Amino acid sequence: MTVDAHVYCLPPRLTDPNVRLPESENKILEAIYSHPESALALKLASVREIRKSMKKYFIDRVVLVSLPWTSHELCCENNDYLLEIAAAQKSFWVVCAVQPKDNSWLAESERCINNGAIGLKINPDWQGYELDGKEMDELAEFIKVKNRFLMVHIDHIFKESSASPAKLCQLVKRHPETRILASHLGGMLGLYNLYPPIKNLLRNVWFDTAVSSTIKMVSFYMEAGLQDKIIFGSDFPFNHCHSQGEVVKDIKALNLKTEVENLIFSDNFFMLAGQNCDECL
What we know:
Elements: E1 3-8, H1 26-33, H2 38-44, H3 47-57, E2 61-65, H4 72-88, E3 92-97, H5 105-114, E4 119-122, H6 124-127, H7 135-145, E5 149-152, H8 165-174, E6 179-182, H9 196-201, E7 205-208, H10 217-223, E8 230-231, H11 244-252, H12 258-273, H13 275-278
Parallel strand pairs: 1-2, 2-3, 3-4, 4-5, 5-6, 6-7, 7-8
């Protein structure tokens, strides 16, 4: 079985490159809607195109992820759309987005989980807070109590960011029992699994392969002893190649053992998500 744990899907009106968005979405406008390849990527962020890609590349299940909008209202709009899709099509699971700075984040989180969301997505850099800030404490505790996972955008270490690997460390120190999926290989934080104090800190942190232009980095994580913590996540359609298949091909080109490939392409994800996905199979 192959599960892609990181695929973005938007409501039809938000796949229009010319859609009018509030100025508060300046980070998303810059990263996605103003990108030279925005028209192609946004077209692919539809259920129809995602299903076509799954069929073409033999991907059995996909986790549809809401974009972590700055606006609470846009988070809700994206969440509504994905929850409706997943309720009708069992090949999809959903990770909903919330804005921890908005007073309604808790009610929205409860609503999403009650309607089948297996996790919640945030991006502090886009949404305007620090990953190790006070906004995160109640959310991290909520995720732990609800037995879900938190999907977090992590920037690489060469970027000065409110979603840096160092800030992830601080969050995990305060909330060691909260399960976290650190996107983009957690900004390479996993290499410090070779350092015993950090290895213990990362025991409830998984890392996805949303590093489509540098997949070789996955092999470094193997050398650091993280074969049971790496999860296939393509970042489709906003990865550099706008393809799920290219990421699958590049991971397979690492010539890993079959049992290790099985961990990356499905088994590690089920360890992260637990019975919340088993109930949907």
